[in-house]
Specification:
The chain has helices at about 20-30, 45-50, 55-65, 120-130, 140-150, 155-175, 180-210, 220-285, 300-320, 350-355, and strands at about 1-10, 15, 35-40, 70-75, 80-85, 100-105, 110-115. It is α+β, with helices and mostly antiparallel strands and about 350 residues long.
Length: about 350
């Protein structure tokens, strides 16, 4: 359990490293801005939420519970309770893990709670300790700083997922294996986890940006709207990656089917060539006493020649039917997408020649 408490007085003086007694004193004063960040689920330390701030018991249960709660925003008499989610960077996993953060936003205080370490909290704490800038404009702007940093920290994960999608698409075409299928399914699960928490948060940020809560001032609404726009972009990118994963899965299945078809084609060619030879060998391998060709001096060489003629004839027939592609001309160059600039209305050279 770790508690970081900062207080900015009305004159801009910053005080940090507050204990429970000073937290209660500054909270009761109703002036300045108090920010208390709590990390962990220790009942003793979280008694601050109940005994000092006297938050609703249901919201405290959401903070102390080990289960993952969906994103939401609830309005109370003198504060707002918000649950938002970001990416959990405290664990290494091939499937994206999410982390939960709870925020209490009042007129002169902000209380943040999270079970796992969050980079967004560390970043805002650093800004506060540098010049207290995030806390000088009020509780709603401090809450904006925290949520905005949490959401912005999702983008590196989305970019990494996009790079993984590139590798998967390349692998699905040139070297489809079981590990490729596993990577596709893990990528799909990661996008679904992001979608499960990002979609509800859009509605939360939308509510915070449209003057539904008096604590969020009119000046801060546009900043929460900006976070909403970031969420929309993340959701669109996540949807795009999910579509690419679906396409990669279809490509993978097609590549496997084409590989099996190629194997069956080769086996069919071998069977088509050797079945006539097997027939000839079967006929002349019979042990009848009276077979005219058995006494013929050149019979053995004639049968070998006949077999050679059959091999050449069948191979030629298969080549004509495009079953055998050996020696056929293949496309070695595909024209890239290239625009003829002189056809563009705004092309500089065209405008220059027209003015002449």
């Amino acid at each position: 359990m770790a508690i970081n408490a900062h207080y900015v007085a009305p004159d801009g003086t910053l005080t940090h490293g507050l204990d429970a007694k000073n937290i209660g004193k500054y909270y009761e004063s109703g002036q300045g801005l108090l920010w208390v960040d709590i990390e962990g689920n220790d009942e003793k330390e979280n008694s601050i939420l109940e005994n000092i701030f006297k938050f609703h018991r249901l919201t405290i249960d959401d903070c102390l519970s080990e289960r993952i709660n969906p994103p939401k925003v609830d309005g109370f008499e003198n504060y707002i309770f918000v649950i938002v989610h970001g990416v959990n960077y405290a664990v290494e996993s091939e499937i994206v893990q999410t982390s939960q953060m709870e925020l209490y936003i009042g007129s002169h205080f902000v209380v943040s709670h999270h079970t796992l370490p969050l980079f967004c909290i560390q970043a805002v704490l650093q800004l506060v300790e540098d010049d207290a800038r995030p806390m000088k404009r009020g509780a709603d702007f401090l809450a904006h700083y925290i949520i905005d940093t949490l959401i912005d920290n999702i983008m590196p994960t989305v970019d990494a997922m996009s790079e993984v999608a590139d590798d998967i698409e390349e692998e699905a075409i040139h070297n489809p294996q079981k590990s490729t299928l596993e990577a596709i399914l893990k990528l799909k699960r990661s996008t679904m986890r992001l979608h499960r928490v990002m979609a509800p948060q859009r509605e939360i940020l939308n509510r915070l940006s449209r003057r539904e809560f008096a604590i969020i001032t009119e000046d801060a609404q546009i900043f929460f709207r900006d976070i909403y726009d970031h969420l929309v972009r993340i959701e669109d990118l996540s949807q795009s990656i999910r579509d690419r994963a679906d396409n990669a899965l279809s490509t993978y299945l097609s590549s496997i089917a084409n590989r099996q078809n190629e194997t069956m084609r080769i086996l069919s060619i071998v069977a088509a060539i050797f079945l006539p030879l097997t027939l000839l060998a079967g006929i002349y391998g019979m042990n009848f006493e009276y077979m005219p060709e058995l006494t013929w001096r050149w019979g053995y060489f004639a049968v070998l020649g006949l077999m050679a003629v059959v091999i050449i004839g069948v191979s030629w027939w298969l080549w004509l039917r495009n079953v055998i592609t050996l020696g056929r001309r293949r496309a070695t160059f595909i024209r890239p997408i290239k625009v003829e600039y002189h056809k563009l209305l705004g092309y500089v050279d065209r405008l220059t020649r027209h003015n002449r």
